[in-house]
Design a protein that fits this description.
This protein has a single domain (about 5-55, about 85-335), classed as phage-related protein like fold (Alpha-Beta Complex), CATH 3.90.1690. Strands 5, 6, 7, 8, 9, 10, 11 and 17 form an 8-stranded mixed beta sheet that branches. Strands 1, 4, 12, 13 and 14 form a 5-stranded mixed beta sheet that branches. A two-stranded antiparallel ribbon has the order 2-3. It has helices at about 5-10, 10-20, 30, 40-45, 100-105, 110-145, 170-175, 195-200, 310-315; strands at about 35, 50-55, 85-90, 90-100, 150-155, 190, 205-210, 215-220, 225-230, 235, 245-250, 255-260, 265-270, 280-295, 295-300, 320, 330-335. It is α+β, with helices and mostly antiparallel strands and about 325 residues long. The protein contains 9 helices and 17 strands.
Length: about 325
């Protein structure tokens, strides 16, 4: 009997090129400009090890200028520029899927063919989940370590019903944006839960623009592209007994990403003896990824294994802001009911 195997459906090298090109670029956060491919981070992701340094130049100090004189004995003292260091953590990830030949024969459709077609979408969801997880970690670190200077909390804190002012409003949005001070316009996208997006639609606050190809309509709010994702943080406040939704404003390229090169990114394994001789096929997909918010150091204080998990990315103890000026980090948080 002729049996179509995964190796007949997808040539691993071609399959790898497809995944590398499409996995991150198809996420909503990439399309909104929140995530930016970084050649520097890509190079770092290929250096090996677990932790990498990402140095940066600090801005020139805001000191008063010298005042010129006609006295040749009065000498000017030059200032200098200094550097800082961000710390990023490489993630080594893999996933495998298997299917018995008999199951495909009985179903009348090849299970491995379907698996191969969905691997790219699976990694997209994982990357987006990791981005949201690190966003939660940045929020927690900011509240714990920087006095919440990136957060505007409009939610009701005491028991009772939430008022309109506790929800998503233009005023609350601008209050969050202006945590950036005079850099308030340095946010080009806002990510919201679908519950919040419904309120924005009900308030007639959404404008739709046509994309550059003229095929899709993109939702925008006050000039910012809107990303709708039900993975956005939602927590129950034990005191108010109300749900709190966190919406996040992102600047262009606030999150950098670099893809490394695993030794064997895609692998197909055949087990002819399994299934009592019926045969089983396994597809392995491996990713080496470095995703990092610019302006931060990942301390790895609470990481148990080689790579940080989604749960560990959410921990405040793993993050420290190294950009001293709040306005240098184009991220802001809005908490509403």
């Amino acid at each position: 009997m002729a049996l179509v195997q995964l190796s007949d459906i997808v040539e691993p090298r071609v399959f790898l090129d497809y995944l590398s090109a499409d996995t991150m670029e198809k996420t909503a956060f990439w399309q909104a400009g929140v995530i930016a491919s970084s050649p520097m981070l890509a190079a770092k992701a290929n250096t090996g090890g677990k932790i990498v340094d990402v140095p940066f130049w600090k801005d020139l100090a805001n000191s008063e200028p010298n005042y010129s004189t006609d006295n040749p004995a009065t000498l000017a003292t030059p200032d200098k520029i200094t550097t800082g260091d961000q710390i990023a953590r490489i993630s080594y990830m893999n996933k495998s899927w298997s299917a018995a030949d008999l199951a495909s024969e009985i179903a009348g459709a090849n299970a491995m063919e379907r698996i191969a077609a969905r691997v790219d979408a699976w990694w997209q969801r994982q990357y987006q989940a990791r981005l949201l997880a690190l966003t939660v970690g940045l929020y927690a670190d900011n509240v714990a370590g920087n006095g919440g200077d990136m957060v505007y909390n409009a939610a009701r804190l005491a028991a009772g019903a939430a008022a309109t002012t506790n929800g998503f409003t233009r005023s609350n949005f601008t209050s969050a944006a202006f945590t950036l001070g005079d850099a308030f316009e340095n946010t080009g996208a806002i990510a919201v839960h679908s519950v919040i997006y419904k309120r924005m639609v009900d308030n007639d606050d959404i404008d739709f623009v046509v994309d550059s190809q003229g095929t899709l309509t993109i939702p925008t709010f006050m000039g910012r592209r809107v990303v709708i994702d039900d993975g956005m943080p939602v927590v129950l406040n034990a005191t108010s007994s109300l749900l709190e939704y966190t919406s996040v404003l992102y600047g262009a390229g606030a999150i950098g990403v670099g893809e490394g090169s695993p030794a064997v990114p895609v692998e197909v394994e055949r087990h002819p003896d399994q299934g009592n001789g019926g045969g089983v096929e396994v597809l392995y997909s491996r990713k080496t990824n470095l995703i990092h918010p610019f302006g931060y150091a990942f301390t790895s204080a609470s990481v148990a294994g080689v790579s940080p998990t989604i749960a560990e990315l959410k921990l405040a103890t793993n993050w420290t802001r190294v950009f001293t000026e709040r306005k240098q980090v184009p991220i802001a948080f809005l908490v509403t009911n």
